[in-house]
Amino acid sequence: MATYLEPLLKSIAERARPYLDIFLLLALVIGVGSGVLIVELQKHVVVILGLVGLIAFIFTILSPEFGLALLIFLTYTRLSDIAVQDYGAPSVAKFFIALLAGTIFMRWALFHEPPKGWQRPSLLVGLYGLIGLGSVIYAPETSKVIEDLSNFIKDALITVVVVIMLTKTSSFRISLWTLMFVGIFLGSISVWQYLTGTFQNNYWGFAEASIQNIVGDSNDYRIAGPISDPNFYAQIMAVITFIALERTLHEKNIWLRLLALWSLGASGFSVVLTYSRGGFLALIVALIAFMYVYRPKVYHVPLIILALIAVFVVAPKNYVERIFSLQEFFSTPGSLRTEDMALRGRASANITAYEMIRSNPLFGVGLNNYENSFGQYSRLSGLAMETETAAHNLYLEVAAETGLVGLTVFMAMVIVSARTILQARKRFLAAGQADMVDLITGFGSGFFAYMFAAIFIHGAYPRYFYLLIGIALALDLVSRQAVKKKILMPSSSRSPLSNELNVAPFARGER
Questions:
Q1: 339-370 per-position pLDDT tens digit
Q2: Which contacts qualify for 74-82: CB closer than 8 Å, 24 or more apart?
Q3: Which of 27, 153, 303, 413 to pair with 245, CA 20 to 30 A apart?
Q4: How many angstroms from the chain centroid is the CA of residue 160?
């Protein structure tokens, strides 16, 4: 683990050395002041959060990697939301995002490091925000538009802050390992919850579970992690599964490889424990894409088959039956009929979204106005369902709420991000930087799994999307700076590794 922590610790130590006396005095003042505040105010949580925030502020000024890792951890675990909802604490996320924005300007002032690479991400997310803002004019419920825009601003800031702070290959490595540790943390709790049957214990808010219909008349617990919805939990854990899978295959340090394997097992099995059919399909489709890049050897095939058998053996009861219930969707030729209420509900939601798009093709019904418009447009489709429901398809939801104009900008964010991932991979491949090629491939596979899973669920938790978009877009500057620092060498002086990649590209997945 020291291999990946060393750059972070080294950068902190180098930045802090000239200001050592100031930091020692500051530490003394903070320690004494915190003790006095706890005694006087009797608000331990507030004081401790303030103390942690101040320390995080100092460390982030010294090392952007530290702040970036903390932002990823807070976002992916929903620690701030849990603290607010379950413990009545103030919003840590709002404070920390503002803190990170402040440290960016502090580093600019103190270390002459102006922010870079923020223009294109800001343009993409800003344009999408403007389209949403424009829907205030015509949306049936403008209060819902304003509510969603408030959350959008925070999410968009995450994208921009991540792009500004993720500028080095070491930052990218730390980001992915942070995600893998989140997978270990959340996934292990979920697996333990399942093995011990302690579903009524939410483990401090990080392991929600509820009894839901599985198939037919069968009901069982579906785990949902910190999100309270199993389908979204499956979506975000699928991302970590592929990052961890890649490191399990290619990490050279045996201890780090074991940690990656732990993250892979905990994250991947958590997807199974959600009973999410969309999550399962996302895993399968992304795995096929992953295996296209890293073609398995002949001797790998029995191992893969045994691994799949093992998963189905230890999977919850009725899991296989629930997965195969997908065939009911196409059981009647020429129709989409099924007795499965969940599938019928999703089909109805998608048909209603289509009616909204057809009636409002350019600008939609207004940002965050799908649910309250559902009853009206479901009648137009002949469904006559009055109950408000979500779109259950992120792309249809975006098109229904912001029209083809909004969908175009949204897809531009996705396509530009995917293109950036592929271009960064190509640059590092040409440079002979095999480890970076592998890391990007793992992240790209996870990103693909997330966007594929979005076909089956809407955008109720967009913060994950904007975090992943930020990491993806940051790879442009990371790879370009690698070129600038002459990591990419002329063909005449390429290393043996680079030549090996050109001679036998398939070993590294290049077709």
A1: 666 777 777 888 889 999 999 999 999 999 99
A2: 75/158, 75/463, 75/464, 75/467, 76/179, 76/182, 76/186, 76/236, 76/464, 76/467, 77/182, 77/185, 77/186, 77/206, 77/226, 78/226, 78/227, 79/226, 81/226, 82/204, 82/205, 82/206, 82/226
A3: 413
A4: 15
Express each pLDDT in 398-416 by its tens digit: 999 999 999 999 999 999 9
Secondary structure (3-state) at 224: strand
Q: Which residue has the tokens 């709002």?
A: 94
Residues β-bridged to residue 495: none
Burial category of 328 from C-beta neighbours within 10 Å (exposed 0-12, middle 13-18, buried 19 and up): middle
Quote the DSSP letter at residue 296: P
What does the pLDDT read at residue 381? 66
**What is the DSSP track for 142-171?**
HHHHHHHHHHHHHHHHHHHHHHHH--SHHH
Tokens 């989409």, residue? Answer: 336
Query: Whole-angstrom Cα distance, residue 59 to residue 106?
Result: 12
d(CA 255, CA 498): 27
- Tell me the longest C-alpha to C-alpha distance in the chain: 77
Q: What are the structural domain ranges in the chain?
A: 1-114
- Three-state SS for 201? coil
Q: Distance of alpha carbon 486 from its chain centroid, rounded?
A: 31
Which tokens go with 208? 């929600």
208 φ, ψ (degrees, to nearest 5)? -75, 150
